[in-house]
Amino acid sequence: MPPAKKRTRTRSYDSAKIRAAVLTQFGTVREAVRALTDEQLALPAQLGDWTVRELAAHIAMTVESVSRNIEREAPSKAELSLLDLLSASASRADDIAAGTRDLARSNPDLDALYARTQERIATHLATTPDTRLLATPVGAISLGDYLVTRTVELVVHTDDLNRAVGLDIPYDRQALAACTRLLADALADRAPGASTEVRVPPFAVVQCIEGPRHTRGTPPNVVETDPLTWIRLATGRTTWAAELAAAHVSASGERADLSGVLPLMG
């Protein structure tokens, strides 16, 4: 029997900063969505056959899930970690897509949808502790951990909106940092080891890939990129070959090729 996989140690996140980041990033997206024209909302979102309207509805749905899960009966014990939830979510892609289309059809006034969503999550977060367990469709997880995963949803889809419509919606720094770090930890969990160091300044450094472990000085295998390029690679928005060719990624060493383990989700 092969040895059990050693799970990446989950880093801790500052609760107040994560809560503020979720609310701030959603509010920023709301302002951008409010200004979109019907023609812009009808554009392809470059995510399968979704339109920008459906992408905007999906962003609201990912944030509304916080309120919806808080309002469900609390489970008795946690079943998922942060990394578990990231990997489990992919199994619900079809249900999520169907729910997104239904939400977009039933809410032609997107700003009204965003206003309700914003008010509900702010109200719930004002009175609900991080330790409250949520019964998500894929398993029980604490509110504190669930909110960290919302930074991934918000940052990834803010980037999707920017690229689809040619916008420049800003990223809350704490949301961008949490998203970058969680996806970097997911890489270390997917490809455990210490032969390769992946650097995403200024937010994350992780070691991964089986092979000789370095003990001092510069490691023999190093990958470095910026946060948005890393997030696009990790979520399948772009490819390793394309970003390497564009010089958005630097990779040195024989074990510095991550194409075999990317994307991590998408």
Explain this structure to me?
This protein is an alpha+beta fold and 266 residues long. Helices cover 52% and strands 10% of the residues. The chain contains 10 helices and 6 strands, in the order ααααααββααβββααβ. The strands form 2 sheets. The chain has a 4-stranded mixed beta sheet with strand order 4-3-5-6. The protein has a two-stranded antiparallel sheet with strand order 1-2. Strand 3 (196-200) and strand 4 form a beta hairpin.
Our Rg estimate from Cα atoms comes to 19 Å
State mean pLDDT (0 to 100 scale): 93
Low-confidence stretches: 1-6
Separation, N- and C-terminal Cα atoms: 31 Å
The helix fraction, in percent, is 40-55%
Please work out how many helical segments DSSP would assign.
Answer: 10
The description of the largest β-sheet is: 4 strands, mixed
Instruction: Tell how many strands the DSSP assignment holds.
Output: 6
- Kindly report the oligomeric state of this protein: single chain
Strand order of the largest sheet: 4-3-5-6
Topology order in helix (H) and strand (E) letters: HHHHHHEEHHEEEHHE
β-sheet strand percentage: 5-15%
SS class: alpha+beta
Shape: globular
